[in-house]
Amino acid sequence: MDRQTEIRLIKDVLALKAKGETQYHASTQTHSTERYVSDVWFKQELDNIFLGRPMAIGVASEVPNVGDYIALDWIKGMSLLMVRDQHNHIRVFANACRHRNARLVEHGKGGCKKKFSCPYHAWTYSTEGELVGAPDFERGFSDLDKKALGLIEFNSRVVQGIVFVHLDLDQQLPETLLADEMKSGFDFLDIEKQRVYKRRSYVLKANWKILTEGGIEAYHFNVAHRNTLAPFFLGNLSTWETWGGMDMRMILPKKTMLEASSLPEDKWDMRKMANIIYTLSPSLLFLAQPDNISLIRMVPLSPGETRIEEVLLVDAPKNGSNAWSEEELKRHETNHNLVYKILSEDWLLGEAIQANMESGVVKEVHFGRFESALTWFHTEYEKALGLDNRMIARAV
Ligand code: FES
Ligand SMILES: [Fe+2]
Description:
Blueprint: H1 3-19, E1 29-32, H2 34-37, H3 39-50, E2 55-59, E3 68-73, E4 79-84, E5 90-94, E6 110-112, E7 115-117, E8 124-126, E9 131-133, H4 137-141, E10 153-159, E11 162-166, H5 180-188, E12 195-204, H6 208-215, H7 221-224, E13 239-242, E14 247-253, H8 270-273, E15 274-280, E16 284-289, E17 292-302, E18 305-314, H9 326-359, E19 364-367, H10 372-385, H11 389-395
Antiparallel strand pairs: 1-19, 2-11, 3-4, 3-6, 4-5, 5-10, 7-8, 8-9, 10-11, 12-18, 13-14, 14-15, 15-16, 16-17, 17-18
Helix pairs in contact: 6-9
Organism: Oleiphilus messinensis
InterPro entries: Rieske_2Fe-2S (IPR017941), Rieske_2Fe-2S_sf (IPR036922), Ring_hydroxy_dOase_asu_C_dom (IPR015879), Rng_hydr_dOase-A (IPR001663)
Cofactor: Fe cation
């Protein structure tokens, strides 16, 4: 986000606040709950959205040094192994041994290695994915070509510190993966220089879209977050922009933004005056607060189950030191727990919503005019799903 955009966005909020308004959609939107509970919809999502398009899976700073790796539980039982190879290049492999499919690294585990040795029979792979060792290979597998037994590698690319993959092995990644405005937004957040403080992983009994929706509207702030966020934010006031696809930026202004009108423009600071959300749907949501960024990774496991991974990204230790000071550690730990506390308020609601939807008593949901980002999200979702207007009309 360049300085001009930062100023423009703050002015937009001040103007809306002065009129007592927010960013509207022209009308309300109604959808059947079918899309949150149905196996048929879920299968179509996996095929068309999660497998059929490039997807952001994480950030390069999750594996900052040569040999660093992390295993990510992914859709359809897949496990991804994100590795920084010996040439400082990030690669994404299937976390599956070419002998008999064992997992090389347990879910959620990370670290730094020169080689990955399978826990079953010790076939061993380099960080470039080549099979470099296998006990008694010549005696047992003399008719196989060792060179053809490297790890399965997905096409991947890092753009502005974000790691993109295509899970369809036959597909190349398109030249443009991020709009210029999104790139500039991630530069503004200095994503490439962030460090992982801690991560947390858990499974929720809710559809991934319900969880995403909770992150892109402020209508619920004064109610669901009355004791946590509400005292600091401007209630049901938010603005958002998109530059195509399911990517967007949302501004959730804090009460401190109102002070901007009495400050010279050079004192306006978006990081302090608002929370900024960037979504790279369907899988990633970034929540930027003044001194940290929460990366929220969503992996749908079934229509009613989603794995959530929270990764707290923070600035590297000051003064080129390798370790955070005690004061920094204390602050990061407080923020790590605070994010979880606030998200839990959303997640509890999300699980109850899912249970109600599965009961089938109330058969539709309505998005108000001021929940305009939800309308946008579902319009893009339907496009990505390949629904034509007739199917959509039937589904409503
Ligand atoms: S399954 Fe990996 S070495 Fe046998
Ligand atoms: Fe929320």
